[in-house]
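>> received
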Amino acid sequence: MERQFDRAQQTAFLTDRVSRTARWHRCVAVVCLTVVWVIGGRLDGAGVVIAQESTAAESSPVDQAVARGKAFLDRRAYESAIEALTEALDADANQPQALRYRATAYLHLGLVSRALSDAQALLEQRPNDADGYAIRGLAYRSNGERELAIADFNQALALKADDTYVLNARGRTYNDLGRLAEAKADFDRALELDSKYVPVYVDRA
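>> returned
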């Protein structure tokens, strides 16, 4: 039975994670006669632009499906995102962005085993993918498998040592296990890196 994903405290992490791994989709047309398609909108109430840009000449059907999935994900239309990303993965089962995005959408819907499957597929083809470890760690934590979650957060931090979001996620997991000194160390480090990251203050309290 799928466990409900902790949306209130981890949405910020997943949204940031998706945005940072999507930079290759965001290109600006600077060559004459280039046609730019913009797929996007704004996160309700956040004022954050979530546009996707690509050129007609460079965009394959798989890339277009991934871009649609990303746009739906940014709008929190998770079921529509999954549909578009599944279309991309049906055409290319190893498309890494589609696996990241669909795993994230599954987590938001509480479909933890499916998120784990996509994260595992991503890591099998990209064993040094920090985002893959971070997403799988969140899935393990949602599933109550906290030691496995910490192991994945450790792997993610070994690849990206100053990742505020993973530090906070690992700190919360340490806190779940009663390892309070380690939790405090992660929260303190996250605040050193980004003193304005509000979830750390909430979790640290």
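>> The longest helix spans residues 7-21.
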